[in-house]
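QA checklist item 7 of 12: single-chain prediction sanity check.
[x] sequence parsed
[x] length recorded as 554
[x] structure emitted
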Amino acid sequence: MLTDIEIAQKAELLPIGRIAERAGIEDRELERYGHYKAKVDLSIYDRVRDHGDGKLIYVTAINPTPAGEGKTCTAVGITEALGRLEENVMLCLREPSLGPTFGIKGGAAGGGYAQVLPMEDINLHFTGDIHAVGAAHNLLSAMVDNHIVKGNALGLDPTRVVWRRVMDMSDRQLRHIVTGLGGKSDGVPMESGFDITAASEIMAILCVADDLIDLKERLGRIVVGYTYEREPVTAHDLRAEGAMAMLLKDAIKPNLVQTLEGQPAFVHGGPFANIAHGNNSVIATRLALKLADYVVTEGGFGSELGMEKFLDIVGRASGITPDVVVLVATVRALKYHGGADELNEQDLDALSKGMANLTQHIGNIRDVYGLPVVVALNRFPTDTPEEVAYVLDQCAGMGVPAAESRVVAEGGAGGEELARLILSTAEAGGDFACAYPLDIPIEEKIERLARRVYRADGVVYTKQALRAIRRLKGCGFDSLPICVAKTQRSFTDIPQLRGAPSGWELNVRDVTVSAGAGFLVVLTGTIMTMPGLPAHPASEKMDILDDGTIVGLF
């Protein structure tokens, strides 16, 4: 089989105007970025506001192996399959970050014959949205430091500045730094650091904002630090939100591209699910629901991360609820959660033990959130017929519709059975409820999520976390939902604990506020907001040839 990039480079792309026409987007609403990608002007809402909403198909997964399990491929493949069934469908995905692209994962636009195109552009600078987020974030950083140097009228305590800097690259060396070294004219020495741009609160704001006005208001609510009296200081106090919104005036517009089989796709926004809320923009999803009968979207990592945050954070802000959840599983991931280290050989014993992970995810979707679920078994070449049959039989025994997905090797044709199951299940509906209400104390929200979704025995807090919670309550932030930053490898906060662990407690080391995005960030375990590169990053295999052809990009 050809590599992903070879498949992408051999594809016959349709002009973006044709894709827009298929989606019901008028030419005057397009802002073209070359022949095959475009932004959609937000004026389109004036035309489609009264259209009825389509059905939302939400794609999530079990806890993945370190290499991932093909959730994005499955989302793309379902879209292609629905297109083959002549359904009016659109896809909504997040934008890839350069950090993972050059780190462990390589490209992030799907794979095989289930990709969004143009793959090279999407995986690299695309339309510049992530860079715009970084520029807006670092402008605010500069204004914070400048305010302190130029008289500090707000009384901002340099030791309590919480607004760091960002860059769209994995660089562990920048996690903790000291700025302002040199003379008096070089600023005030302060401890600081860098996060990856996907972890910026501005990225989260971009993905929950309703429009430019809402974006600017949310930017103004960002807490950058605290005064000597421990009162919060916001971006609005620094009069920064206008300039920041100006830098984001194009980034807020959804990006239109296409699948390998010509279905329209919005690729917009890129927060990580293990350190942010992990879903594409509300603006893109809401617009797609006005334009299509079926919208396919995906959330980052497992259902206890991206999906939980979509339901408990994004859904509350937007009023959007999935009609059906597609849970992606793989034989190799189930064997991994059953304790196997060799994933390419048949191991029914490990597979049987690993089913506990799939079962817990199914239970969360059906019992905690009240949503219908379909299992998509993403087929790998090393899966044996016995292993595949075992998983499908187990799903049938739980009363869960399940089907193989062969979209990576076969495109939409390999997902038609799955697509038909999704269509019939979406019609059944559900009885949705969030995992916790907003009008309970912060500790109780964390406790409910830990016990109901992660299946922990309780929560343990550091002194720093307890102090932070008291401060946040005093500032009036206790009514916000919570966004847990934790490992994607496990239901727990310990990556090595596979399967469906019991008899453990969630360790909370700090709690911070993203007031503009509208949630509290609960930091657990050793999760980092600035990843590092692996021993042999994917970038080592990437190159550009003399004729401009890119190679090695996944």
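[x] summary fact logged: The domain at 130-247 is CATH 3.30.1510.10 (Domain 2, N(10)-formyltetrahydrofolate synthetase).
[ ] second reviewer sign-off
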